Amino acid sequence: MAVDDHRSASLHGAETDAVYDRAGFGAAVPLGSRPALVVVDLTRGFTEPGFPSGTDLTREVTAAAVLVTTARQHEVPVIYTAISYTPAEADGDAIAWLRKAPGMRALRESSEAVALDPRLEHHDGDHLVLKKGASAFHGTGLAALLTGLGTDTVLVCGATTSGCVRATAVDAVQSGFNTVVVRDACGDRARGPHDAALFDLQAKYADVVGLYDALAYLDRLPERAPAGGRSADR
């Protein structure tokens, strides 16, 4: 699979490129035959500019919707995530992240802000992981769910690139999964953090790919075998 090179001299400089090359970063990720798609926090509170924590992610949501549709066509599990706080959590002081990012307190359970973007189809067979922090793995059963599904490769998209997407992708690798981040289906509030996060992910943790490369990978998958069957790297 081709990857997007986020180490161009125009963005990061030849010296940065040389340092990362010398350190041995940026190898390609092996891709298995049993992927899962993790759609991180594409909820209205992040994808619509009318919410304090949101911005217009129409283009990214559209790309994610294409990914979801293609994943279902190939019987690839779709897992949505959402940040959701109880009133006690949102109003209290027990969650350290909310001391640093108090704007997240608006992401209260059952509110419009935590509802999945309506432009994404949520089927009964899709999984939903509710979380309290940036990573979809921290304090959740996501790793166990992926293992139970027989997953060998995790496709990640969503919002925000520099926050929850990056944290989820890093933890996916640390949980033992080969990880691919789909650039066109990831969004952030500003371009600088978005580009910096993708550069870091491509260098150290995941393959950062375009939408069409991700779709081509899904289209090449063999007929899905039962969970627990042997998977072959592609």
In brief, what are we looking at here?
Helices cover 38% and strands 16% of the residues. By secondary structure, the chain is an alpha/beta fold.
Write up what this structure looks like.
The protein is α/β, with parallel strands linked by helices and 234 residues long. The protein has one domain: Isochorismatase-like (Rossmann fold), CATH 3.40.50. Helix content is 38%, strand content 16%. The protein contains ten helices and six strands; from the N terminus they run ααβααβααβαβαβαβα. A six-stranded parallel β-sheet has the order 3-2-1-4-5-6, sandwiched between helices. Strand 5, helix 9 and strand 6 form a beta-alpha-beta unit. The longest helix is centred in the first third of the chain and has 16 residues.
**How does the major sheet shape up?**
6 strands, parallel
Element-level helix/strand string: HHEHHEHHEHEHEHEH
How large a portion of the residues is in β-strands, by DSSP E?
15-25%
The tally of domains stands at 1
The CATH level-2 architecture is identified as 3-Layer(aba) Sandwich
CATH uppermost class? Alpha Beta
Keywords: Hydrolase
Protein name: Isochorismatase family protein
Domain Isochorismatase-like: 36-209
InterPro entries: Isochorismatase-like_dom (IPR000868), Isochorismatase-like_hydrls (IPR050272), Isochorismatase-like_sf (IPR036380)
